[in-house]
Amino acid sequence: MMDEGTELSLTIAQIVQRLKATHLHSQIERQAKECLHRPEIQLESLKEDVRNFLKASGWERKLQNAVYRELHVQPLPSHPAAPPEHAKEPLAYMRKAQVNWEKRILKSLNSMCTELGVPLARKRPAVEQKELTNKWNEMGTDEPDLSRFRPVYAPKDFLEVLISLRNPNHDSSEEASAKSHWGLIQVPLHDRDIPQMREAYSELSLTTGQLGIDDHTHVPPDLFESEHTRIGKKVVNEQDSAAAQQYSRQGCPTGLRADLWALILNSTNEPEDVMHYEQLKAGVIHHDLLVDNLIYKDVKLTASNDDYYFVFEDFLYQVLLCFSRDTAVLEHFSYNSATPPKSYIQGKVGVEEFAVVYPPNGVIPFHGFSMYVAPLCFLYNEPSKLYSVFREMYVRYFFRLHSVSSSTSGIVSLCLQFERLLQTHLPQLFYHLREIGAQPLRIAFKWMVRAFSGYLSTDQLLLLWDRILGYDSLEIVAVLAAAVFAFRAENLMEVTSLTSAEVSVPRPQAGRLSPTHTHTGFHSGPWLLK
Amino acid sequence: MSRNKTAGYKGPYGYQKRREGDGEWDFNWCDVGWLRENFDHSYMEEHVRICHFRNHYELTRKNLMVKNLKRYRKTLEREAGRIEASKCDFFPRTFELPSEYHLFVEEFKRSPGSTWIMKPVARSQGKGIFLFQKLKDIMDWKKDGSRSEEQRDETQVESYVAQRYIENPYLISGRKFDLRVYVLVTSYIPLKAWLYRDGFARFSSTRFSLTSIDDQYVHLTNVAVQKTAPDYDPEKGCKWQMQQLRRYLTARHGTETIEALFKDVDNIFVRSLQSVQKVIINDKHCFELYGYDILLDQDLKPWLIEVNASPSLTASSQEDYEMKCCLLEDTLHIVDMEGRLTGREKRVGGYDLMWNDGPVYREDVNLETLGSACFTANTHLGCVNDRKKQLRQLLKPFPGKKRI
């Protein structure tokens, strides 16, 4: 193990290296050069003065935000002798499971390709390119025949993979007892226990003000809401990433959320970001990818049928089609247990120089994928900004929801956390559901994979995602899932089958949890933590 | 106390068809046709209630609404000046045809290239509406002295209004929408009006563009029209709840801007009701639930499209059904046949008292607060509607409570 000092120097060196290549670096360099003309810059105290200038003009803050962002996407520090795959995933059996899963997905994709006689990628003829350019803002009006395409996989397929995970070094031959784990996930991962969570999530305690609870109509606004909003405005003015993240733990006011999230994610909309987006758009126009059809199908099946998000159909295409072509996304695979599928130029299979990642961003969309983007349309309506925010959310959080890993924010940990919470605090309910063949995870899994998108009303969902950003962790998703079950415990004790259990768990009108449930969820969260 | 409903509305109280010749009712939820035929011949006891005002059409027929608004505006300008009168500029330039044809042509020529919308005065659900940009499209409505008496009698054209089309509507993801808001009036003199917190935004199912003015599916947002559009998918739904819209707009434009917008919307309700206050035949037996159609433009200015005396109560989804049931329930609470209210309430269920012979404020106006400058209007359109809780507290049996 490296000592802390060396670790820190290494991290600093890595970050400096990464930032050197960015536009921000050249901007600050230019600013530093130009400021030399200013009267307050004296030769004797050059370094000090330039530094002060950069601080006063806000450039230091921008740099701080950039560094802060890098810290979020750093792979875990590891021993210098460790192979790179350890940064992706330290546990060998998890890596193996992920590799096998990827093989299956790829096989499914390739067979669809062969079956349908559709190439993985094809250049569009000029006429088609022109048509698409004209229709760019209303791709939703297109009604291509998608009946032959099937989603490559659905969350429930992935659940089966997780259920079959076993640690070969773990002796699970003991007889099942009250002490053993009753749930579907049978891997011995370490999760935070209640006292630890209570400490970590101290801002969610019942005694601290929360948006979503303490801004309700009967609570006078000057008790919490007004002051919280005032602080929020200040944070936005200061343009401070770290402060925004801390602030978000208590929820973001509706009018400030878009700016706050962009700050936390360090998503800028500078000319180079817009240009990058336009390049991706050009890529979409020139080439047609097989995965595009998967995206169309997914949007049509999920977001377009959603009461809240149907309006944003066109935005979803504009974001997801570009996302598929963004090779910048490949960077995140250094800390993602997944590996992008590779395809080889004809005749050169196995030769690395002729390897091509497919799709270009290495992410194969699954059924429900578009729901990661849909809630963001509520906040941003400039495609390049929307894109920038989504991409950052994906490479920080969403990728963990569909890859096999031991990370505390990974889906495996979330499932385990969910089951453990339920077993510890609602053992009677868990036992009952197990007996009737309605394992709770089978119901809650789809909520967690989507981080509740489509299962909560938009305002509730955004409040949840406020906390995901605030705590830089998806753990709260597992806590909420458990809280939902806790809220419906009485009803669930009466059900006699999986189907009736599904129905009994809150799925009102639009198939959503109601604000009361999440309200209780947030309350129960801390309650559970108590 | 018997309750009869004549229209086919499902409600918490159920309904029975009126028996012919049956004049014994305490509460009548009738349609305007019945009203027209029977109101004048019905004797109503003190406690009886009916859901329309005799001459509601002064507000709900497009040509009369505009006539009343124009007249009210003139009066306001004369009495209170230009600025006050400009608060009535929430309806687009409108002319009745054929009677105001020449005035219309003058205006038409003043704005070349503009788009206009023609609407029959008395039809609903988007029927008979079309857009035009050239005068020749509306030749039938030309008031022409050259036509012979015979010709004129033979081909009576239906009365229409020509209205300047709002060419820059506020779009969400390229789609146009309008707002349906519910206002309950229980008296015109003095004016007492309630605003319901729920409502919805109706989206057109296709993207907005001025190049296809023949495509009524692009421009008309009535659900009735959208239902017949070729790509209409009933599963899709084309409505957002008012809360959803308000949150979306607030996220995009900030709290202050949107609060100002909703204040402007309140202004539309109040002014439109004031404009017909002196014309409507006030009757203590009458109340009326209006469905207001409001359109927003890109500058976030709200425009009044029309007022409906019989807003549709058919539901397009489960959510919609529940909203409308609650709306009706709360309407009945306010009509208060059971005599449970004191008459001093500022809120009943999802309704907030918007106007009570004067503006109604959230804050209690008394000697202490009179000095302070900020009073907020008692309206909560698109805000949280925790009506069940409020009703439980309001209708709690309280010893000695009397109705005033």
UniProtKB/TrEMBL annotation, chain A:
Domain spans labelled Rab-GAP TBC: 251-472
Region (Disordered) location: 508-530
InterPro entries: Rab-GAP-TBC_dom, Rab-GAP_TBC_sf, TBC1D19
Pfam families xref list: RabGAP-TBC
Protein name: TBC1 domain family, member 19
Naturally occurring in which organism (per UniProt): Oncorhynchus kisutch (Coho salmon)
Automatic annotation (TrEMBL), chain B:
Gene Ontology molecular function: any one: tubulin binding
Pfam families: TTL (PF03133)
Source organism of the structure: Oncorhynchus kisutch
Designated name of the protein: Tubulin--tyrosine ligase-like protein 9
Keyword hit for Isomerase: no
Keywords annotated in UniProt: ATP-binding, Ligase, Nucleotide-binding
PROSITE patterns, A to Z: TTL
GO annotation, cellular component aspect: ciliary basal body
Record-linked InterPro entries: TTL/TTLL_fam
Annotated signal peptide: none
Family note: Belongs to the tubulin--tyrosine ligase family.
GO BP terms, alphabetized: microtubule cytoskeleton organization
